[in-house]
């Protein structure tokens, strides 16, 4: 699931909450909310977040991983001109419970496949019969 809360609430949300037309709600921390719900209930989906950073990728992504109670954070160095926005390639660092792994510059579809491979590993049962994610 992807969330970018640059805009206001959906019309249905406004109607349900009784918010006056034109009144904006604050930003929604969807990843953090899902992480807290999963932490409270003891189960839930695999959670992958994304971080656009300009420095200290691993440090910032690790902090976000812990704050949001996510399984993985995929960090992009948005200061690079050859990766990320407006180009067909990307180089990311994937941070999870086992540490950080930096992927080399490659096509965005290859990066997506690499991220999905990590998610698949989280979904595989461990030797004790439970899924390996939190």
Key terms:
single chain; 134 residues; Rossmann fold; two-stranded antiparallel ribbon; 4 helices
What does this structure look like?
By secondary structure, the protein is α+β, with helices and mostly antiparallel strands. It has one domain: 3-Layer(aba) Sandwich (Rossmann fold), CATH 3.40.50. The chain contains four helices and six strands. The protein has a four-stranded mixed sheet, sandwiched between helices. The two termini are 18 Å apart.
Strands ordered across the widest β-sheet: 1-2-4-5
The tally of helices reads: 4
Quaternary structure of the protein: single chain
* CATH class bucket: Alpha Beta
Beta-sheet strand percentage?
Answer: 15-25%
Total count of domains = 1
Structural class by sheet pairing and helices: alpha+beta
Q: At CATH's second level, what is the architecture?
A: 3-Layer(aba) Sandwich
Mean pLDDT: 84
Topology order in helix (H) and strand (E) letters: HHEHEEEEEH
End-to-end Cα distance = 18 Å
CATH topology heading: Rossmann fold
Radius of gyration in whole Å, from Cα?
Answer: 17 Å
Give the CATH H-level superfamily. Answer: CoaB-like
Question: Could you give a short account of the major beta sheet?
Answer: 4 strands, mixed
As residue ranges, the low-confidence spans are 1-15
**What percentage of residues falls in helices of 4 or more residues?**
25-40%
> So what's the overall shape?
globular
Total strands: the figure is 6
In short:
The chain is an alpha+beta fold. The chain contains four helices and six strands; from the N terminus they run ααβαβββββα.
